[in-house]
Amino acid sequence: MQLYENQQIKLYNSLTGKKEIFKPINKGHIGMYVCGPTVYSNVHLGNVRTFMSFDMIFRYLKHLGYKVRYVRNITDAGHLENDADAGEDKITKKARLEQIEPMEVVQRYTVDFHNILNTFNFLPPSIEPTATGHIIEQIELIKTIIDNGYAYEVNGSVYFDVHKFNETNEYGKLSKRKLEDLIHNTRTLDGQSDKKNPQDFALWKKAEPQHIMRWPSPWSDGFPGWHLECTAMSTKYLGEHFDIHGGGMDLKFPHHECEIAQNEAAVGKSPVNYWMHANMLELNGQRMSKTTGNTVNPDELLSGNNKFFSKAYAPSVIRFFIAQSSYRSVLDLTDDGLLASEKGFYRLMDAVNLLNQLKASEKSTLDINTLKQKCYDAMNDDFNSPILIAHLFEAVKYINQINEGSETLTAEDLAILKEIINTFTFDVLGLENVTKNDSGTDKLSGAVDVLIKLRQEARANKDFALSDKIRDELLEVGIQLKDGKDGTTFSVN
Ligand code: AMP
Ligand code: ZN
Predict the structure, then answer these.
(1) Helix (H) / strand (E) containing 274
(2) Where is the Cysteinyl-tRNA synthetase class Ia DALR domain (predicted)?
(3) 106 and 237 in one domain?
(4) Do 12 and 158 have their domain in common?
């Protein structure tokens, strides 16, 4: 018997706005699709938060014994700068600015994305398809949508006819928008667009002569629209109807709304039973966003080399900080918050490391089975990781009490306590057992700070030969010092 038979999950479905009992389409199996990154720049910590929330959900579903097929795509084509299908393709633009091939941009940032996820101890998804690897599927999907009467071709581009679709279906049902309001709030077109209506969105765009990323199609040499790739790839790997679709809150409209419309237009049914949206990470009270530049990248936070935070933080501390909030709450990344999480994380790890030294007794004075079920209840309640962590701290209290001799556990209960810690701390939350002194990044940052201070002293003593030697030799081992008006910082090359 699998654990899921006894543990009933309730999850918040963005489509209905309610917490619902989770029931997979096929018993014991779950299909889950999460929109992946657009690989045109380094991921920031906001992106990491969203993927981390789904990593935790994936881990818990697997722990319950479900066979989960988790698909997370890589967007390597078709994502224009502007939601109204205007502007340049983000990857092409980066390639033009850096004078490299678009596929070099894709390669560089896909590798960066994977490195970051490894650093944070993510589990790999079951399938990680790319948009460029599924052009044929996307063209076939467009043909079906045209055949069904929900898309039209103009000058080599194909657009989804939102008004026509809305006559028989409900466009806006996920994001709770009404087409009439969208019409009212959209500026009229300037005559440049081929669209019948501004709410229509591109399924296929004809490539301008200078556009490098292009594929032949029945309509033109061009490229697919961004929303289309997710429908094509989710259908290919999870079927026309699957269990869970996730992404960041900002993708609800237009991206996910358009995915629903495409699926309904192509196969006549809504693709997904449960839509899940992770809330935004903020930095200094403002959404972290590539567009505004209000971001901190993981390596900046891990090395301590940034202008926002007082020190370097270990990957598990950052993971712990993120798990201390519900995935559905806005979370502000602050130094105070990280410092508090760091203290809590090492308190938890100290207790974990004490666990193996505890001695069993004749009888138990603590109710360990109730604690275990409380941990499951927290995760069953829409993956409520902050409540789970509160229960793990109850376990920390127990461990310390047993160690001091004020409470006791039998060998059997002690084994259950170890199981609780291993399951929830490591398997589900994905934390790694590091103690404060193991943290390589902390040590590196501390050591470079010592050298920066020595160099300042050398300069103050006018010993420029020594100060230059420190700078040059650090550079030789890949650490670059940067002198600024607020002092010296460093980067690891
Ligand atoms: P992108 O590469 O821009 O498509 O974003 C990748 C994922 O990160 C999407 O699911 C976004 O919703 C999510 N995301 C972007 N900004 C933030 C943020 N500040 N906090 C949390 N998630 C975010
Ligand atoms: Zn998507």
Answers:
(1) strand 272-278
(2) 374-440
(3) yes
(4) yes
What was the pLDDT predicted at 442? 60
Q: Are 347 and 396 in contact (CB under 8 A)?
A: yes
Q: Residue by residue, what is the 3-state secondary structure of 22-47?
A: CCCCCCCEEEEEECCCECCCCCCHHH
For residues 452 and 473, what is the distance between their CA atoms, to the nearest angstrom?
Answer: 12
Q: Which pLDDT score is estimated for 75?
A: 96
Mutate to test the pocket of ligand 1, among 250, 291, 331 (most ligand atoms within 8 A of CB): 250
Residue 338: which domain range?
282-436
Which residue is it, tokens 């918050």? Answer: 337
DSSP 8-class letter at 257 = H
Residue among 50, 76, 82 whose CB has most ligand 1 atoms within 8 A, to mutate: 50
What Å distances lie between residue 117 and 299, 422, 427, CA to CA? 11, 21, 16
Amino acid 421: pLDDT: 97
Buried b (16+ CB within 10 A) or exposed e, 260-276: bbbbbbbbeebbbbbbb
Pocket of ligand 1 (CB under 6 A): 35, 37-38, 46-47, 49-50, 247-248, 250-251, 280-281, 287-289
Q: Which tokens is 77 given?
A: 């084509």
Beta bridge mates, 287: 282
| Token representation of residue 300 | 């900046």
Question: Based on the domain organization, do 47 and 139 belong to the same domain?
Answer: yes
Q: Which of 226, 260, 278 corresponds to the end of one domain?
A: 278
Same structural domain, 88 and 107: yes
Shared domain check, 298 and 396: yes
Cis preceding-peptide flag for 254 (omega within 30 of 0): yes
Q: Going by C-beta distance under 8 Å and a sequence separation of 6 or more, which residues neighbour residue 245? A: 32, 33, 34, 234, 256, 259, 271, 272, 274, 275, 276
Please indicate if the annotation marks 255 as binding a ligand.
yes
The closest ligand to the CA of 252 turns out to be 1
Q: What predicted TM-score, i.e. pTM, was given to this entire model?
A: 0.89
Rounded to whole angstroms, how far apart are CA atoms 17 and 356? Answer: 44
How far away, in angstroms, is 112 Cα from ligand 2 center? 20
pLDDT of 190 reads 53
Ligand nearest to the CA of 290: 1
In the predicted model, residues of the chain with pLDDT beneath 50 are none
- The closest alpha carbon to 281, from 326, 314, 313, belongs to 326
C-alpha distance across the termini of the chain, in Å: 51
- The predicted structure's pLDDT at residue 481: 86
Give the CA radius of gyration of the chain.
26
Q: Which two tokens stand for residue 28?
A: 């014991």
Coil, strand or helix: which one is 121? Answer: coil
Close Cβ partners of 110 (under 8 Å, ≥ 6 residues apart): 39, 74, 76
| Residue at token pair 């081992």 | 477
For the stretch 60-93, pLDDT in tens is 999 999 999 999 999 999 788 777 777 788 998 9
257-267 helix and 135-147 helix, angle to the nearest 10 degrees: 70
